[in-house]
Amino acid sequence: MFARSLLLGCLAGGLALPSFLQASTTQAVVDEGYAAFYLSELENFALSNFGTLETAPALTKVAELPGGRVWDAVRAPDGSFYAAVGSEGQVFHITPEGEAKEIFKAPQPLIRALALDDEGGLFIGVNPGGSIYRLPPGGERAELWTKTDATYVWDLRWDEDGLWIATGSPAALLHLPADAEVGAEPESWGKLDNPNASFTTLSRDEEGDFWLGSTPDGVVYYLHDPQAGYALYATDSAEVNHVLALGDGGGLFTTYRSGKKSDSSSSGSDANSLPPIVVTADDSLGESNAGTGDLYRITPSGFAQPIWRSGRSGINALSQIDDSLVLLGLSDGARLVALQDGNNWSLLHQVPGASEISVILPGNKASENFLFTSRPAGLWKIGGKSDAAAKLTSKVKDVRQIAQWSRVEVLRSQGLPLKVEVRIGDTAKPDSTWGAWLELEQESNDPTKAVYTLLESHFGRFFQYRIEVTDGTAKGEIFRVRAFYTLENVGPMLSGVEVLPFPIELQENVNRANANTDFDALFTARGLQTFVEGETQTRYKVNRLEAAGWYSVIWKAYDPNGDPLLHNVSLRRTGENEWQPLAQGLPDPYWSFPVKGLESGYYQVKIESRDGINDDAEPDPYRLAQARSRQFLIDNEPPQLKEVEREQEGNNVVIVVQAIDDWSPIADAFYNLDGSPYQPLMPEDGSFDSTKERFTLRFYDYAPGVYHTRVEVRDEAGQMAVLPLRFEIEEEE
Q1: Residue 254 CA to its chain's centroid (Å)
Q2: What are the tens digits of pLDDT across the range 616-635?
Q3: How far is the C-alpha of 595 from the C-alpha of 551, rounded, in Å?
């Protein structure tokens, strides 16, 4: 394990470590705001939507479960749990102390729904087949309680009226009264026309009306009497996977989006297979099923709007804790979101080692809740004070070149006690070549801004920091982290050398960013920085000048350190070795130069740029940028025109003219007769594509007299040639 350090003196192979010169620039990588900290690995940290970090409530593992994935779970009045787990139709009982025991194994692979009745009996929905079993309180053997006409049982709810059943293929709401006996046939309260649709979730409001989520149409349905319901809201997603009726007459629901909205009715249905939606018997959902999720609020008046959106993960769990708190379980790294309203929410926790939060169950008080996770399957308790250390490990930072790292600054509140560590390397992912984690020494201990410094200088392109709150009971927030680094004075970069066959003039337009900038640019980190710091921005307006015998060269140059640049311009004729200097020390990226008198031929322009900070007699070739133009033609010689044939018979004359150019193809030809307007003249072969062209002039049925014509040709370089001609038509005797 190694890292670049000034103390090393040199590296393998005898390359001396470069020292950074006075022209080096100090910059900082900044993590601030929700988007920046979300990409970090958080342990026992809560992240608010305003971008502040604070210690999270305690998170305690209660039990580990086999099977990989938890599909549904319920909590019994005695504080124990029942959980449907895995792809073998298993149900486990978990005691409050975390002891897990299998109590049921279904003949089919998937159990998606559980419900407890008033006596403590457990209803179990088994798929495919649409069967419902009941395990009596303390019983050892479950009974097949009823069998639906559907292929799937997706949700079960028990209340004072009995058992409510949401099914799929077809989508139906079924009811078993509270006093129903084993074998009773459930009553239908309504179903959808599509035989392959599903009601994936159900909720009942205080008026006794039902909210139902569906797939594949992604609609929320409202049902207030048997066979009397309507579509409340149609989403643009394929599935509504959670609905929650609220006490004010409104509700919440979540959607699942995996890509294009599809309709499973277009494909055949097999009673032994599962529908092509997110609910699947496979206990290891791949990334393709991770999807994205939206949380919607429906007001009592029926208006629906999204109040929270996850662009990175699906919402796998939804639970209302009290009138002002809703918890969301995400599929991206088992993250837990606490939502008070659309403007006040936080990433409350990230369960270590798990892939998703599948079920959230309330505890005995609002500050105590239980989480079932998947991949691996487990049960966790969240709530209460924690004395565990809160840690943040940043995303790897890439500054694109070797940098010298020096300090880390943390903006905090209440003097939150912190330990800051960094590690540095030269590969995109940390490996054995990276340096070890280095604890930084606290340089200042202001209650708001704490500065930590490296005891020695370290070099590397890639950087990562780790922050730990050393006292888990301490209160305070972290708002911003800045890591300072210094870049070596590297050379400029050149690109885009172009030669123009005319002179130009550049007008500088120097703007101060703090005086005039685009409003939307202020909402980007770079735009805001330049606006505040007043960075000078130079733009050029190009004017074309009309003057024969002049060429111009333009180029694009960039200095990574932001240093002013100086440029040298040279010219060389193809085939020659020596470059002719045209200009030196130019501050602007253009130059116009005369070409009259130069020998015709192909030429090339060379641009050399340096930053001008270290104006050494022999500049470092690695800090000198060089670029060359394409080969271009300077043609100072006009075409040669001559008459090569003439035929005259009576009143008819035919004249053939030949144009020859040593360098440029002939581009245009015209002629006139006795001062009349010029007419275009085409080559005999029909195209201007050669340095040698023949043109035929035909004059038929002309009256006796003397005539004068002029032929003009122009080559691609703009050189002109003129040939005057005379012919005479004599009178017949």
Answers
A1: 24
A2: 556 666 678 999 999 999 99
A3: 7
Any idea which residue has 């092509």 for tokens?
A: 276
How far is the CA of 3 from the CAs of 470, 490, 519, in angstroms?
A: 27, 21, 43
User: Per residue in 612-627, is it b (16+ CB within 10 Å) or e — as a string?
Assistant: bbeeeeeeeeebebeb
Cβ atoms of residues 217 and 231 within 8 Å: no
Amino acid at site 508? E
Helices and strands in the chain, H and E counts? 2, 57
Question: What tokens were used for 644?
Answer: 């090569």
Q: How far is the C-alpha of 38 from the C-alpha of 476, rounded, in Å?
A: 19
Pick the closest to residue 629 from 542, 549, 553 (CA basis).
Answer: 553
DSSP letters along 347-361, please?
A: EEEE-TT-SEEEEEE
CA–CA dist 694, 475 (Å, integer) = 93
Tell me, yes or no, if the pTM score tops 0.90.
no
Tens digit of pLDDT for each residue in 60-78?
Answer: 999 999 988 999 999 999 9
Structure tokens belonging to residue 733: 């005797």
What is the Cα–Cα distance from 656 to 240, expressed in whole angstroms?
84
Q: Residue 105 forms beta bridges with which residues?
A: 90
Given a contact cutoff of 8 angstroms between Cβ atoms, the answer to whether 265 and 195 are in contact is yes
The helix (H) or strand (E) run that includes residue 530 is: helix 525-533
